[in-house]
Amino acid sequence: MGKLTYDSTLGVDFDDRVLAHLQLVIGAKLRRGESFYFSWRDDPSIGNGRSTLWIHPRISLVFKYAGGRQPSINRTWVDALMATANSPGGLVLVPEPETRGAEANGGHES
Length: 110
Hints:
The protein has two helices and six strands. It has helices spanning 16-31, 75-85, and strands spanning 2-6, 10-14, 36-41, 50-55, 61-64, 91-92. It holds the Pfam family DUF7882.
């Protein structure tokens, strides 16, 4: 389980695979200087609610992975996440869509 730390005060646990995909989308938005909302459903252990952050290029953000290996990237999922990030409601952590073959491995067969 990795951790997203925002503004050195808020730490949120995400699976390393989820975190890798979020890093790609959030990084792309911040490189363009874009601020946006990021929303996800909370784990049932902390109340089963929903959380939202205002992501801004000037606020520190740390992606800390539990594992040492880079997860494979699902381009379809990145595109789905980016589509939500570019909407008025902001980035929403949507479930990973199923993929087959090379697409599931970032375009490379394993």
